[in-house]
Write a structure and sequence with these properties.
This protein is 25% helix and 23% strand. The protein contains six helices and twelve strands. The chain is globular, with a radius of gyration of 17 Å.
Amino acid sequence: MPAQHLFTQRHGGHSLSPYDSLNLGAHVGDNPDAVTANRQELASRIGLPLDDLIFMEQTHSANVAIVDRATASPVPNIDALVTADFGCGLVVLVADCTPIVLIDDTHHVIAVAHAGRVGAEAGILPATVSAMQQLGATAQTTSMHLGPAASGSRYELPEEMARNVNKQLPGSLCRTLQGTWGIDVRAGLVRQAEALGIQDISVDPRCTIASEDLFSYRRAQGATGRQAGVVWQ
């Protein structure tokens, strides 16, 4: 059976404002009981026990962990998870950063990665692809799916910083709707994936900053929940 994936949004959960309502982040100040209930909703939706979902303690790094069903969750100091195991779900949490899902159905290897500006610059995508290849995956048989994230049209940065990001992540430099300098992390990730040999690429066009249906740290200016990218096989 092919691997499956999804990207959540903010509605249909148990959390109260400013985390309303399907907040999946346990590190943002939300009621722990509400977060557990929300994670149970997610597990039920994909048909796995909650104990078989593996989360990360994300740190905006290029650190990758190869895991299996016996791995304790959350995995500390990690921004990507890779597995060839069946029956476990891999989860990445975001609120403007790009959630990456990678699937190689031919070799039964799946991955998630957390690609904010810092992690994308550090090389989280090539590091994740390399870890997948350790388990037998190939770029030619891997598909990449990018979820909702801050769009280039709204992700403003000072020009010098934006140009420095573009040096490490070519293709990310852009202009925002206001005509200011910005970055499009997803555009840079697509170019990077293509350079790695991945051709099967899909991008969810939704912008977290613009859409009230999604959590956005930038729009909320701080306290907010986290949505997820999830893959399982």
